Every structure is written in C-alpha cells, then in structure tokens.
Amino acid sequence: MMISCLRKLAVLPLLALATRAAAQEQPVPPCEGRDPAAAPCRAHYDTAPVLDPASQPPLAAGEARKPLIWIYVDETGAVRHAQVHQPAGGVDWDVAARDRARQFHFQPATLAGRPVGAWVLLPVAAVPPPASCAGTDAVPRSAGAVLVDSMVSGRPEIGTVYRYAASGFDIHLFVYRHAEGETPQAEVEKTLAALRQGAVQGGPDSIAVVREGPERLRPSRRFREVEFAGHSALFRARLGGSWMESYIAVFPAGAEDLKVRATYPGGGGARREVAEFVQQLLSSRAWRMRGCPR
C-alpha cells in the first residue's frame, strides 16, 4: 500500500507538468465574452487542471492509440465535455478516447486560490470496443464538435436542427424524414438555389460553387457493409462583405435524411474538422442501421 501511494505521488508532478505544457500551447481564443464550456477556449488561471491518475479506467486488451482530446474540467474537477482535437488515425479510437476521457477526474484549475473551470488538451490512450452492440449508447452523434442546442422545426423538410460548436464556427445538422422520390443531389441543388435567390434568412449575399458532386463515405472500419451515398457542395459565400467557405451535404440514412451545413473561414483545418464531424455522425447512424439501440 505504501509503495502504491508513493508511486501515485511520484506521478502527480509529471502529470502536472504535462497538463501545464498542453494548456500553455492551446491554439484557441480566450474565453472572455463567451460561454467557456461551449467550446475550447483559453481561460485565466494560476494553476492548470491536474489529472488524478486513479480516475483513469483500465485499458482493454488490443491496439491502443492516443488521440489528442480537449477536456473541459469544471470547478469540482469533473469532466463536463470532451472532444477530439487531433485524431489518432481511426474513428473507433477517437470515439473510445472521448468516452474514456469523460470518466477522468482532475484537481481543478485555480485562480487566486479559488477553483475555476478550464479546458485542457491531453493525449488519451484508448482501445476500441469489439464490433458489437455493446455500449452503443455511449457512441456520440459527433466527436468533433460540442452540441450547443437543438430545435424542432414545424416544417417537415427541416425536421430537427442540431447546432454544434466547432473551432470558431458552428455546424448545423438537420435530421428529417426522407421524402419519397427525393434525391440528395436534388436537395443540395434546391438549397443552393434558395441561397442564390436570398430566400434563406441570414444567408450569404452571393455564392460561387467551387465543387459539387457525389460523396460516398463509410463511417468507420467497423461498418464495412454500410455506405452512405450522399451529395455535397463546397462553395464560397459572401457574408457581410467578406468571403467565407461553406459546405453542404445530404446523406440518406434509412427513413431519414441528414443534412450538414457549415460556414467557416477558408482553410484546411476547418475543412478537416467538418469532415471529422461527418464521419462521426455517420458512425453513430450506422449503429442504428445495424439494429443496435442508440
């Protein structure tokens, strides 16, 4: 028992240094003027959150990988949010690491001697569960963004709208019943036409389509028999005098259609974040299409 305690005490300074180093390199905006728990941001604190090694669940047998995970630690040291920052080369590992990080417990960050909430960026080792229905309720709709709010629309062609916070921009997901005879290409083209005509509230002044075409994605290696054949468009949108990049895609998912919309400053980083969101979204839907509970 004494040896075990000494080992834990020896690990704590190393964890504190690793946590502090990750916190100092946060490539995120300051938290001022925003909800600090909504998306990763840089908080003011004197001491960073420190992971309690005893709170880490044991790793299962199998290949382990370490994606970088953003973790929001509240004033009690509990993890309120966790999302993938840098994938580990496989969606299954990313989802498993996110779920494992949610079980961690920390010594909270402190400011002037008082505990405060803060984000911390850490590598989290994880091993995916077997390809079965076990634990499907833990598979998130997305591991690439934080769910902010949702709204049930009165219009069936819009359905339920989910809004997610990514790194400095929002991703909107529309889930609605599939209309008989409607195709993803027709849905994308109708949206583009509505944007061009200025019929979308808060939409762009003008758009210029950069790329449009079929988008066939498999959600992850565990669902080789599932394929979501969708249609997407990437376009430049003029908003408030500035040019932004926008992405829209529609994926049929059984009796439902999934429409993803995102507008963000042009750049590969935001594109990759949207692509990760879509992949995680389709992984979640693939569970349901295989007959597993959500």
What would you report as the Rg, rounded to the nearest angstrom? 21 Å
So what's the overall shape? globular
Strand content: 25-35%
Low-confidence stretches: 1-26, 135-139
- Give helix and strand order, one letter per element, not per position: HEEEHEEEEEEEHEEEEH
Strand order of the largest sheet: 8-9-10-14-13-12-11
- CATH topology assignment of the largest domain: Protein Transport Mog1p, Chain A
Got a strand count? 14
Mean pLDDT: 81
Number of domains: 2
Distance between the termini: 42 Å
Number of distinct helices: 4
Please report the first level of CATH classification, the CATH class of the largest domain: Alpha Beta
Helix and strand composition category: alpha+beta
**CATH architecture verdict of the largest domain:** 3-Layer(aba) Sandwich
Helix content: 10-25%
Short description:
By secondary structure, the protein is α+β, with helices and mostly antiparallel strands. The protein has helices spanning 2-24, 91-101, 184-196, 268-289, and strands spanning 50-51, 68-73, 79-86, 106-107, 109-111, 114-116, 118-123, 146-152, 160-165, 170-177, 206-217, 228-239, 242-253, 256-264. The termini are far apart.
